[in-house]
Amino acid sequence: MAVISAFDVLGPNMIGPSSSHTAGAVAIALLAQKMIAGQIIEAEFTLYGSFSRTYRGHGTDRALLGGIMGFKTDDRRIRDSFSIAQQRGLRYSFLTNEKDKDVHPNTVDIRITCLNGRTYSVRGESLGGGKVRISRIDHIDVDFSGEYSTLIIIHRDRLGVLAHITRCLSEGYVNIAFMKLFRETKGDRAYSIIEFDGSLPDHMVSRIYENPDVQDVMFIPVKGENENGF
Fold this sequence. Notes:
The protein is α+β, with helices and mostly antiparallel strands. The chain has helices at residues 6-10, 19-35, 49-54, 60-68, 81-88, 161-171, 204-208; strands spanning 40-48, 91-97, 106-114, 119-128, 131-137, 140-144, 149-156, 175-183, 189-197, 214-220. It has 7 helices and 10 strands. The longest helix has 17 residues, at 19-35. Residues 1-17 and 224-230 have low confidence and may be disordered.
């Protein structure tokens, strides 16, 4: 028998009329924002399914823009996301895609451009009740929720890289809850997604970078843990 929590019934603390179309949208964009170390200067949002049809009326556009600026689901500034983005010099645009049907009905692709010129692409899905899933990063399928502290490690698909990563985490007494590997093709770029309990030691990211096949390390803290990143 499925277990239904009070959170599933009541939903999250939020600004806006819909846990799926507003709170979920904020959560997706906030996760994307936490993944990026540099300053974001432009965000392009491509909306699918019901997101694409109702985003203006349900405030999904304001929610996504607020999340990419670091606002949480209950932040009252979400109502003023457009004017705040303009004040900050953040360029943004909203596109709709109603042709691709083989996606979750509440899906958004976020293309992020940073001040240093680097671009990132993140796909997120709003699952209901404010819960979300990140399902793609830079065109590689992944799967994580942001409900745990999360490390995203981009590396070459080489022998010994995973052993290095797990050894670093073990030395730092990091208790792994879930660990998944996603890759383009054998020997090409790979993404290791590690969800864990508790916080991350300050030195851990630099320690992981010691392997020459590690290209990028992103850390998404769960609320209350290492809230300022590393």
